[in-house]
Design brief:
The complex is a heterodimer of chains A (about 220) and B (about 475).
Chain A lengths: L1 E5 L3 H13 L3 E5 L2 H10 L4 E5 L7 H10 L6 E5 L4 H9 L4 E4 L4 H14 L8 E4 L2 E4 L4 E4 L2 E3 L3 H12 L5 E2 H9 L9 H13 L8 E4 L3 E4 L2
Parallel strand pairs in A: 1-2, 1-3, 3-4, 4-5
Antiparallel strand pairs in A: 6-7, 7-8, 8-9, 10-12, 11-12
Helix pairs in contact in A: 2-3, 6-7
Chain B lengths: L1 H8 L1 H68 L4 E6 L5 E4 L6 H5 L2 E8 H4 L14 E10 L5 E7 L1 H51 L15 H50 L5 H32 L6 E5 H18 L2 E7 L4 E5 H17 L9 E10 L2 E8 L31 H11 L3 E6 L4 E8 L2
Parallel strand pairs in B: 7-9
Antiparallel strand pairs in B: 1-2, 1-5, 3-4, 4-5, 6-8, 9-10, 10-12, 11-12
Helix pairs in contact in B: 2-5, 6-7, 7-10, 8-9, 9-10
Classes of the chains: A alpha/beta (about 220), B alpha+beta (about 475).
Chain lengths: ~220, ~475
């Protein structure tokens, strides 16, 4: 995946570039807003990671300009501002996701991988398949190996989000944000408990589990 | 002098001066106009009088002859007043009249004349009481005609009256304007001094506040005037600032106290890991603990920031009309499985469709904190089922969000204290957590113009977020 990182903190940037490189991604770096904007509009990237407060040009204005030029490259906004208001203005400017500093690298990696996939066609699929598990978004039915699995509405949304991002790591925060629409830290292991319930419904009695816990990162559904 | 200069700088004095100036200009214009108009009016009146008398005497002359006219003029001339009369023959000899002499052309030509004349001669004798202060010179307006009988008749008026009127108008002007100048100056100075006194009081207070005493307040009077209104609102502002400063101070104190300790621990652990002779499992474990410790630090820090922002908070853009019932249902649903795993039943008693203008995230976070506390401090007991009830109801214009449990409860004397930041009751010291949970809930309640109450659920705790409904 080809990534553009616009970040003025050189130390943070070089750490990120190295970590993204280890994860198998090619990262270009711009350390101020103007350069970043020139690079973003001049080249084709899979994902842009843009810091909100940049010298010479502010991150949100870069995103606004790109969107005005009909550039739909997914953007992850990095910011030290974490209030709901800030998040809303960031997303309204055209950002696709918002990550508050300080963050765990696994969280950032999971988010950009999900973002990059999002720009691919087929997002509005009416059903998802992972192995012998099938989720129909219209009839809201879930089947595994031909057997119907009964899920609570929230469990359905949880599974839907996981299957939409099948093969990608989704973090607990991403689940809380996308399934429950909350942006705070749940103090306890709430998400884990929900996942273990879902797992007991989806995987119990089957030889090959589909729901996997990725240590130190989150969860993934895959064959 | 300094005081005088200060007085002059006050807006009241300046306004008064401006109005005084405007008034004087206006008075001058008005009185000039009046004086001018009256003098014209008097002149017209006098001319008309003169013409009337001339006509009258002309008729007397033509009907009654010389005897009649001489008698008539003599009678008129003997009356007191500003009248000037002369009757003479064509040789210039005076037959009757009250003025000794006229300029020569008046005696020779017909027409209207005005001239200075010797008044002593005119008002001599019984007609005018001799007044030393009267100027000897008079000013006369006369009409000179030749009668049918060939006699010369001169009828006129001493215009000293006209001048008298001007003098009266001028006097009125001086008195009026002078009086107003004096009165308005006094009024201006008095008001300004009053204003200055009040402003001095405000200045004195702000000086004290600037020098560091934030608890000073502007004194109020019983007058309840605009200064009191201003002072009240300034005092309210000062209260708010003081509260914010207090909050800030607490935050810094707490940050210093509660972040330094874990930071020190973090540092020690990293140092210990460095001292490990060979890299391996132990070092890796140390690093992992370091990361999880720093995550905890970040959480504490976030909670502190959130409290600070909620407490500083003006309701922000994140406020929207939200369905509180759904928020509560969602949070209860989020925590239901966790509670169940701990063997606690999480029930809801939520009135449907309660809407409120609120910050959804903060209300959600507050509910999470309350449920989290209830779960954390629950102590399993023989023969008792743990039970947490998330409730929401409206009551007399209030929205009550309640989380109640049947756990060990909080001693009555500690109930107020648990809301404070970082307060963790003695027996809970060993539990994980920052001690910020309830103070965040309290801050959220205050941001929504409500309060957090900790009540006795007998047994257990009932935490009530009490918010105004609109």
């Amino acid at each position: 995946m080809k990534i553009l990182l616009i970040e003025d903190d050189r130390e943070a940037a070089s750490y990120l570039i190295q970590a993204l490189d280890e994860a198998g991604h090619v990262t270009h770096h711009a350390s101020d807003g103007e350069t970043g904007y020139a690079m973003a509009s001049g080249m084709d990237y899979d994902v842009l990671i843009i810091d909100r407060m940049l010298p010479r040009r502010d991150g949100l204005s870069i995103i606004e300009s790109l969107r005005a030029e009909n550039d739909k490259t997914p953007v992850l906004i990095l910011s030290a501002l974490g209030e709901v208001d800030d998040r809303v203005t960031g997303l309204r400017a055209g950002g696709d996701d918002y990550l508050v500093k300080p963050y765990a690298f696994t969280e950032l990696l999971a988010r950009i991988e999900v973002l990059a996939r999002r720009s691919n066609p087929g997002e509005a699929a009416t059903s998802y398949d992972v192995g012998d598990l099938k989720l129909d978004r219209l009839s809201r039915k879930v089947e595994r190996a031909g057997e119907t699995i009964l899920l609570q509405p929230r469990e359905f949304r949880l599974l839907e989000y996981l299957m939409k991002n099948a093969g990608k790591v989704v973090t607990r925060t991403m689940l809380l944000e996308n399934v429950w629409d909350y942006h705070f830290d749940p103090q306890t292991n709430v998400i884990d408990v929900h996942m273990s319930r879902l797992r007991s419904k989806v995987d119990r009695g089957f030889a090959n589990p589909l729901l996997h816990t990725i240590r130190g990162a989150g969860y993934m559904i895959r064959e | 002098m300094n005081r005088l200069a200060q007085l002059w700088r006050t807006s009241t004095v300046r306004l008064t001066a401006l109005f005084m100036l405007l008034f004087v200009v206006f008075a001058i214009l008005l009185l000039t106009f009046i004086a001018y108009q009256s003098s014209i009016q008097i002149q017209r009146q006098q001319t008309a009088d003169i013409d009337r008398e001339v006509e009258l005497l002309r008729r007397v002359d033509s009907r009654q002859g010389i005897r009649g006219i001489v008698f008539a003029v003599a009678r008129l001339a003997s009356q007191p007043g500003p009248g000037i009369y002369y009757l003479g023959d064509n040789a210039g000899l005076q037959i009757a009249g009250n003025v000794a002499s006229f300029p020569i052309n008046v005696l020779q030509t017909e027409g209207v004349f005005s001239f200075n004349y010797d008044r002593e001669g005119a008002f001599d004798g019984e007609t005018v009481p001799d007044d030393d202060e009267d100027p000897p010179q008079g000013y006369a307006v006369v009409r000179s005609v030749v009668l049918d009988s060939g006699l010369r008749l001169i009828v006129g008026r001493d215009v000293v009256e006209r001048r008298g009127l001007t003098a009266i108008v001028f006097q009125a002007f001086v008195l009026g304007v002078g009086g107003i100048l004096v009165l308005s100056t006094i009024a201006g100075v008095v008001t300004s001094r009053r204003v200055l006194r009040r402003i001095d009081a405000i200045n004195a207070t702000s000086a004290k506040i600037m020098s560091g005493n934030l608890s000073e307040r502007i004194p109020l009077t019983k007058r309840n005037d605009e200064f009191d209104v201003l002072a009240t609102s300034l005092n309210a502002m000062l209260d708010r600032i003081e509260a914010l400063m207090q909050g800030l101070k607490e935050v810094t104190d707490n940050v210093a106290h509660d972040l330094k300790t874990p930071l020190t621990r973090l540092r020690n652990r990293a140092e210990a890991a460095l001292r490990e002779s060979q890299p391996g499992e132990a070092q890796r474990a140390a690093l992992e603990t370091t990361i999880s410790e720093s995550d905890k630090l970040i959480k504490t820090f976030n909670a502190l920031l959130m409290i600070a922002r909620a407490e500083a908070g003006a309701p922000s853009g994140a406020f929207a009309d939200i369905d509180l019932s759904t928020v509560a249902e969602d949070v209860a649903e989020l925590y239901g499985p966790v509670a169940e795993e701990q063997g606690i039943a999480l029930d809801t008693r939520i009135e449907p469709g309660v809407t409120l203008r609120a910050n959804r995230e903060l209300i959600g976070q507050a509910l999470v904190n309350l449920i989290d506390n209830a779960l954390k401090y629950y102590e399993p007991e023989e023969g008792k089922t743990g039970r947490i009830v998330v409730g929401m109801r409206t009551q007399k214009g209030r929205v009550l969000i309640e989380v109640s449990d049947n756990g060990p409860g909080i001693p009555a004397e500690d109930r107020g204290r648990v809301v404070e930041r970082f307060v963790r009751l003695e027996k809970s010291r060993t539990e994980p957590g920052s001690g910020l949970g309830l103070s965040l809930v309290a801050a959220v309640a205050r941001l929504h113009r409500g309060e957090l109450r900790i009540e006795d659920n007998a047994p257990g705790v009932r935490a009530v977020i009490d918010l105004p409904a609109s």
